[in-house]
Specification:
By secondary structure, the chain is mostly helical. It contains four helices and no strands. The chain is about 55% helix and about 0% strand. The chain is elongated and about 45 Å long.
């Protein structure tokens, strides 16, 4: 599955962050404290309503013991 729209990517990333948070037993408030952001920001991230910065993604990956991987995949018919 490929994503061309920023909104689609933010939604997918947010869902994955929410899944990792729930799987770890962490509340939104706990994650917010670790990130030093308001709880509402975590909710917006998880709903794909927040254009999350790369640095924040890296911090989230570390919190959950993950490594962030970004891939650029050639799409047929595109430059």
């Amino acid at each position: 599955m490929t994503y061309h729209d920023t909104e689609e990517v933010l939604i997918r990333v947010g869902r994955e962050i929410g899944r990792m948070r729930r799987d770890s037993g962490m509340s939104q408030a706990m994650l917010a404290r670790k990130l030093r952001v308001a709880k509402e920001v975590v909710g917006k991230i998880e709903r794909g309503e927040y254009n999350i910065r790369l640095g924040t993604l890296l911090r989230i990956a570390r919190i959950f013991g993950r490594q962030l991987e970004i891939r650029f995949i050639k799409v047929k018919g595109e430059i």
